[in-house]
Write a structure and sequence with these properties.
The complex is a heterotrimer of chains A (81), B (477) and C (373). With 477 residues, chain B is mainly α. Chain B contains 20 helices and 2 strands. Chain B is 69% helix and 1% strand. Chain B has a two-stranded antiparallel sheet with strand order 1-2. Classes of the chains: A mainly alpha (81), B mainly alpha (477), C alpha/beta (373).
């Protein structure tokens, strides 16, 4: 289940956000603090998570303190399902 | 009471001594009393306003949710009240003369003097804190506070009252709720923060501002050559930054002596490589507030309406609106709005640039050196500071002189000393780059630490001790 | 729904309470203290070097009355440069704007063949109560042969607690010179670091008060205390406009004219400097005759002050040079009803120098004036 979540998230981020469909994203690689993902893209991710997993991420949670890696995002989703 | 004054030092020492003799719950009462005493020193009327605002928000928050759901009407009532309060006081220069003219047309004569409105201390800041509290309670992210003392202290806490940082109830109330202590590390950190802050404010910013040719700059920028303008704008940029960063450092250090950690507000912003990074380094608590309560909600609503995937609506409207609100909050006047518009355009432009770059295959992407990006961001930020410093017609003239003017010489010897002050200013930023503020100091040898402290203390003493108090003004005899 | 915000730790937090400091790093603190002392010693030594002080204006005294401080600084600077100080003119702004020591010297020299080195210690708004304290300080520190107090009715109307008086008399350094010890007074009197820290302060904060710096191209009389007016502010031929802000000060103090005891005491303190071997002269400072209009009872009020001064000078056998003996000055010589402009100051100073010369020759003052370099 969680691998499925991680692969869906990684795939979405790589293709829709980074525009690099083949790119492998390590689950532990920092996304926000490294500058890979900016504020514009964070909302796209939040809406994707809402539509795909039915989990809402609040506006005040869209920052590296709440989640910075794919793994941390996956943990957040699982904790709210 | 200026935070760099001797009176403030005595005040803090007095509050601190009693504070550490008290048990935890009593400490919060004591801090609340001290905070209101600090506020009343400025104005008892504004203290009453703060008290009224505290009661209003405390009671309103308790009613914001019912049956597990937020009640939007009450939220908008609360937000609206804060916006109205803000506009009444801060926009008074905007509307006052127009209001007087309108009343005049209706046959009501009002002398302008009688209607001069003074802005309550810290209003701009506690209004934002109020709104964030209400929004977070509404969304169920935090429960409404049931502890009136802690809530009142959250709004009135004196170290952050004058100019922030803007704290969220979500992080601040738990700090107030739990016992705090100050160990060796916290003490040395606080002392270093205070010294760094005093150095930034008194030895860098004040010195630079004192040498700045305000008169000529505001009236006749054409009198300066291109090189001189660049030099003065660079000085202005660093003076503005060090003034505010210095203030934040001082209040964070003071707050640390009470065991209460305030959020950082600056992180060597002029080293940012892009504007998103800049806004994560400059006035961080305000940027994050704008991001969380303006940018993201607007972005979310537009994305839901128009879809995701780089529509112009989600590309342009959220950053422009956010930066306009920021300008309005700083102002509100045309100069600040122009500054906001410029930064909005920077963000939109940067986003478009990034999208086009992403669209290029890997092999065709131009590799910049990161210092190149840093320089470009710095130049654009400095250009945007111009309406911060001068009125719009002068700003236009200044930009024209900078970009199109053809006078290059360097004749202004007044630039030399401030440029020399720039050297330690940049050194300090380099030393602090991407580290906690106090680390650079702790890594020095003990002798170096002592030298830095002693030199800073002597210079601060010289700069703050005018030989006499209020000078005597002779009236012609 | 998050839990209610409550403390997650017990209320007991360590034995030492919330101030949980253990061993402090005394070494850094000790080193800092040593370096601080080192800096102070450095400052103290540096400002004792003639070569350093030669490039600076004179020392500060920590007074709120900046112009008073400037006069002390100028006088100190002259002394530092080896200038002899034979005579000092003391008084309010009528003296400050109205006496040119260089012209006094020239006139004196023409008649006697000797030079007389004078300093203009006019202090804006100075009442007699403060003048007495300054006179004590001037005699004690500079040992002039002649002290000339130029006085006017206003000097006797200002209460000792009015800002005009207080701002001078409350200066700790001046109190120290008059025998009252304060730490601040002592420091300003003896510590070069304290006297010159203000220079560093002003340099860092880009503060340049126009009177302080004697630039090479500035007229030399500025170094001797005169800050003249070069124009005419009020046409003295027209009747005074009591509503005008330019006349606010004389309207306030002369309009309800009252002689205060503390000012008469101050005058006594001035004339009693003769006990210290100083030739004291009191001069009735000139004003344009329209100025009588400021007094409620015109010339009558003026006479009442005049008589008091006459009494006190006579009882101390001090010379009192009166208006009647002075040359009348044309309307173009006046900046306003009370103050001369530079043209008037030069004329008045010409007369002063000549009078001094006559007194010197006729009364056989038992001293000669210093040779200048």
């Amino acid at each position: 289940m969680s691998d499925d979540v991680i692969s869906k998230l990684s795939s979405f981020i790589a293709s829709d956000i980074l525009k690099q469909p083949g790119r492998e994203l390590a689950p532990e690689a920092p996304l926000i603090s490294s500058g890979l993902i900016d504020s514009f893209s964070l909302m796209d991710i939040a809406l994707f998570v809402e539509d795909t997993f039915g989990v809402r991420i609040e506006d005040t949670e869209l920052n590296s303190e709440t989640f910075d890696t794919v793994k941390e995002l996956e943990d957040l989703i699982e904790s709210r399902q | 009471m200026e935070i760099t004054s001797f009176h403030f030092l005595l005040f803090v020492l007095g509050v601190l001594i009693v504070y550490h003799l008290l048990p935890h719950r009593a400490q919060n009462y004591w801090l609340l009393i001290a905070s209101y005493a600090f506020y009343v020193f400025w104005s008892w009327k504004f203290a009453l306003l703060l008290l009224a605002a505290t009661i209003f928000h405390f009671e309103l928050a308790k009613r914001l949710r019912r049956d597990g759901k937020g009640r939007p009407i009450l939220l908008w009532l609360g937000v609206g009240a804060n916006v109205v309060l803000f506009v009444i006081f801060k926009a008074s220069s905007f509307y006052l003369s127009r209001l007087v003219a309108l009343l005049g047309q209706m046959g009501i004569q009002v002398g302008l003097d009688g209607l001069r409105i003074v802005i309550p201390l810290g209003l701009s800041y506690y209004v934002l804190q109020n709104i964030s509290y209400l929004a977070d309670v509404y969304r169920g992210q935090i429960p409404a506070s049931t502890n009136w003392i802690d809530f009142a202290l959250y709004l009135a806490y004196f170290p952050k009252m004058v100019a922030g940082p803007i704290e969220r109830a979500r992080t601040f109330l738990p700090i107030l709720a739990r016992p705090r202590w100050v160990d060796n590390r916290a003490l040395s950190r606080s002392v270093i923060l205070i010294f760094v802050g005093l150095t930034r404010k008194l030895l860098i910013a004040d010195l630079m501002f004192a040498h700045f040719p305000w008169g000529a700059f505001a009236v006749e920028p054409e009198a300066f050559s291109k090189i001189e303008l660049i030099g003065w704008l660079g000085i202005y940029a660093f003076a503005l930054y060090n003034d505010f960063a210095g203030y934040t450092s001082i209040v964070r250090g003071v707050s640390g002596l009470f065991g209460i950690e305030l959020s950082p507000n600056f992180n060597t912003p002029y080293f940012a490589k892009n504007f998103t990074e800049f806004w994560n380094r400059w006035h961080i608590t305000l940027s994050h507030w704008l991001r969380d309560y303006i940018f993201f909600p607007v972005n979310r609503a537009l994305a839901r309406r128009f879809g995701t995937g780089n529509r112009w609506q989600t590309l342009v409207i959220p950053p422009m609106l956010t930066m306009l609100v920021s300008g309005f909050w700083h102002g509100p006047n045309w100069q600040m709005l122009l500054w906001g518009i410029l930064h909005g355009l920077y963000l939109v432009g940067e986003r478009l640039f990034m999208l086009r770059r992403q669209a290029r295959p890997e092999g065709q992407k131009v590799r910049w050196p990161s210092w190149g990006s840093t320089l470009i961001v710095f130049i654009l930020v400095v250009l945007a500071w111009v309406p911060f410093a001068v009125r719009i017609p002068t700003a236009l003239s200044l930009w024209n002189q900078l970009l199109i003017g053809n006078v290059f010489g360097f004749r202004d010897q007044g630039l030399v000393f401030p440029l020399m002050v720039l050297i330690p200013a940049i050194w300090l930023d380099l030393a602090q780059y991407n580290k906690a503020e106090e680390i650079f100091f702790l890594r020095q040898s003990q002798f170096a630490q002592a030298t830095i402290l002693a030199t800073a203390m002597i210079l601060i003493l010289v700069v703050t001790s005018s030989d006499a108090g209020q000078p005597f003004v002779y009236q012609g005899f | 729904m998050p839990e209610e915000i409550k403390s997650t730790a017990s209320d007991e937090y360590g034995k030492g309470g919330s101030f949980a400091i253990q061993k402090l790093n005394w070494r850094v603190l000790r080193l800092t203290l040593i370096l601080l002392v080192g800096y102070i010693v450095l400052g103290e030594s540096l400002f004792r070097l003639d070569i350093v002080r030669a490039g600076l204006t004179g020392p500060r005294i920590g007074s709120r009355h900046r112009q008073f401080e400037i006069q002390v600084a100028r006088l100190e600077k002259l002394v530092d440069e080896g200038e002899p100080i034979d005579c000092i003119f003391l008084g309010n702004s009528m003296v400050w704007l109205g006496v040119n020591p260089l012209v006094v010297n020239q006139a004196f020299q023409e008649e006697t063949g000797q030079e007389i080195h004078c300093f203009n210690f006019g202090v804006s708004a100075l009442p007699a109560s403060s003048a007495g304290k300054i006179a004590t300080m001037l005699v004690k520190n500079y040992h002039p042969k002649v002290l000339i107090y130029g006085t006017f009715a206003r000097d006797y109307a200002i209460p000792a607690d009015a800002d005009d008086a207080y701002v001078v008399s409350d200066t700790p350094w001046l109190k120290y010179q008059n025998g009252k010890f304060t730490l601040e007074g002592w420091l300003y009197a003896h510590s070069r670091a304290v006297q010159y820290k203000g220079h560093l302060h002003d340099f860092l904060l880009n503060i340049y008060l126009e009177d302080v710096f004697v630039q090479p191209e500035a007229p030399r009389y500025i170094a001797y205390g005169l800050d003249p007016k070069y124009d005419i502010r009020l046409d003295v031929r027209t009747a005074p406009d009591f509503e005008s802000p330019d006349n606010r000060d004389p309207v306030k103090w002369l309009g309800h004219f009252e002689i205060r005891q503390e000012n008469l005491d101050g005058l006594r303190q001035v004339v009693q400097q003769s006990d210290n071997g100083v030739q004291v002269i009191v001069i009735e400072m000139p004003f344009y005759n329209n100025a009588y209009d400021f007094f409620p009872n015109g010339k009558q009020d003026y006479e009442s002050y005049f008589q008091q001064v006459d009494l006190i000078t006579a009882s101390n056998r001090t010379s009192f040079w009166q208006l009647d003996d002075q040359p009348s000055l044309s309307p173009e010589s006046w900046w306003d009803y009370f103050h001369l402009n530079l043209q008037g100051a030069d004329q008045f100073s010409q007369w002063l120098g000549s009078e001094l010369a006559d007194n010197y020759l006729q009364q056989g003052w038992e001293f000669s004036f210093s040779e200048s370099h």
